[in-house]
Amino acid sequence: MESKFIVIKHKRKDHTYISIATSNGYGKGYSNQIGLGRLEKLQEL
Questions:
Q1: Which domain of life is it from (predicted)?
Q2: Which of the residues in the chain have pLDDT under 50?
């Protein structure tokens, strides 16, 4: 089976968090989530 990665943005009250996950298929959600960090901090790099 081919792994498909998706980028997820979690909006919080004062920041946005970015993570990557593998798709379980259309309409089945995602799993194996890996957090990358806050969007604001990543834009500074």
A1: Bacteria
A2: none
Burial zone of 21 (CB within 10 Å; 0-12 exposed, 13-18 middle, 19+ buried) = middle
Q: What whole-number distance in Å separates Cα of residue 43 and Cα of residue 26?
A: 30
Query: Which residue, 43, 44, 34, 40, is CA-closest to 14?
Result: 40
CB 6 within 8 A of CB 29: no
Q: Which residues pair with 8 in a beta bridge?
A: 19
pTM of the model: 0.69
- In which domain, by residue range, is 30 found? 5-44
C-alpha closest to that of 6 among 30, 26, 28: 30
Query: What is the total count of domains within the chain?
Result: 1
